[in-house]
């Protein structure tokens, strides 16, 4: 009989964002991040100084989460809460630290439901915290790192909770670490730029039980807002058609480059 994977607990939620665990983890990581790259943020004045909201950034490389966490903690003075892939929580010590710091596991294997993840994210928002969700759900598959087709989780969370959503464009992390690469090229002079946009107008979608087509449309509204910010940061125009990994025959989770070499699609 196959052994069942260990059940991963959910983080404890309190009204206090800046818990001792958050301060300890941030105190260790923030100086390291400063040595790896330079975070610059524009448009921060658009974010509420308190209360619940969802941050929705594009996702280009594995360095993004560190850069966004630094931006949230150092620049906005809030505690970063991410929906984070479950395998990180299965690493001894690392998983305990992530839970203590208020990160939320997302499950891609059997045994636990992602309904629990969204329920916890919703509870954080109800407690007045901010939550960061990468709407693409994984690293972009677009060959030129443009934001790709979004998944509906971020929008469903926003519509269910009623909180505002703020798009965030980010660019520069690909110079620190390429997508799914083991080559790490840190440097405190390397700039990772963030641009915060205005609250996304989702009012027409905020109603009881929106239809699946409406949720998809709202997701595209979010991805369009993010893409416009990335265009400003890059000084370029994004492709007219958003990259769709399914149409391109790519794996939609995990390292799609490695899976393609093995002839796998998932």
Helix and strand topology:
Blueprint: H1 20-36, E1 38-42, E2 53-57, H2 64-75, E3 83-85, H3 94-100, E4 104-106, H4 114-126, E5 130-132, H5 153-161, E6 165-171, E7 191-196, H6 212-234, H7 256-261
Parallel strand pairs: 1-7, 2-5, 2-6, 3-4
Antiparallel strand pairs: 6-7
Helix pairs in contact: 1-2, 4-5
Describe the structure.
The structure is a single chain. The chain is α/β, with parallel strands linked by helices. The protein has a single domain, classed as Glycerol-3-phosphate (1)-acyltransferase (3-Layer(aba) Sandwich), CATH 3.40.1130. It has helices at 20-36, 64-75, 94-100, 114-126, 153-161, 212-234, 256-261, and strands at residues 38-42, 53-57, 83-85, 104-106, 130-132, 165-171, 191-196. α3 links the parallel β3 and β4. α1 crosses α2 and α4 packs across α5. The longest helix is centred in the C-terminal third of the chain and has 23 residues, at 212-234. It is globular, with a radius of gyration of 18 Å.
Taken together, the total number of domains comes to 1
The count of β-strands is 7
Quickly count the helices.
Answer: 7
Task: Provide the CATH topology.
Answer: Glycerol-3-phosphate (1)-acyltransferase
| Unreliably modeled segments | none
The CATH class is Alpha Beta
CATH architecture identity: 3-Layer(aba) Sandwich
Q: What separation lies between the terminal Cα atoms?
A: 25 Å
Beta-strand percent range = 5-15%
Structural class: alpha/beta
Q: Can you list the strand order of the major beta sheet?
A: 1-7-6-2-5
